[in-house]
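User: quick one - fold this with 2-oxoglutaric acid bound?
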Amino acid sequence: MPELEVLTPEQVSRYREDGYLVLERRIPPETIQAVRDEIARFQDEARGMTESSDRLDLEDSHTPEDPRIRRIKLPHRISDVVRDLMYSDHILAPVRDLIGPDLRLQTSKLNMKSAGYGAAIDWHQDFAFYPHTNDDVLAVGVMIDDMASANGPLMIYPGSHLGPIHDHHRNGVFAGALDPAANGYDPKDAVELTGPAGSISIHHGRIVHGSALNTSSLDRRVLFYEMMAADAFPIMGAMTGFDDIAEFNGRMLCGSPTLEPRLAPVPVRIPQPQPQHNRSIYEIQGGVKRAKVTM
Ligand SMILES: O=C(O)CCC(=O)C(=O)O
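Assistant: Sure. Structure tokens for the protein plus 2-oxoglutaric acid:
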């Protein structure tokens, strides 16, 4: 095994077995505060808006007078703070220890899950949205607020990243959600990824995960950076943009790109055909209501 930068061999083994890790207080408090300040800027932008834009995804209950953002889309493109954090070793060093050294960005998003109404996300596997030639694919979640049972933490089924990619279709169309009961998952086996603000979670692209509505009085904002080994190439039909090789390689986070995909025997389902409204997971899952995420 190459020398590890920040993780212990035990943490690496645990990630391989369980499919997730939580690293407490990994991001400096001043950086978390800077992200909160950026969020306040976007909240001002949402005032007066009547529908979602390519920057802000609005809650169904949003009104121009009472702005409610569900998600800030691709925040690394519209916030230097979020972009600098993405390229920092706070984020990349532990990921390099797991799937490095060469990493490419899939996407970034800041899920707001605001106090009182923040939207739920149904159970799903990220790899069902963007299957790749190998599964060195993961998501880093930066906890911008303390994340506890009460405010809708991310929940996962440990070890589910070693199983199949489940059916995320409904009526012959990709619906972005799976039915946990029909696939043998018992709610008592779900684990909540909690921690103080500044902690990060890392979850495997194949792990079954979701989160409940936030009915508490505490915000639960998580900034996700989703990424993969540079030799994981999207499979045709995956929800991964591919304009051309320059744009593809322009998403490198560290290390070197390659033209030689690594082909691993991973389970794959193609997320096609796509639903009519597919601009975000909320829209895709909104077309279908299956098992709600509850504990
Ligand atoms: O914000 C969450 O709790 C879940 C995020 C997620 O799984 C997603 O956005 O794909």
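One thing worth noting: Residues 109, 111, 121, 154, 209, 211, 222, 281 surround 2-oxoglutaric acid (CB under 6 Å).
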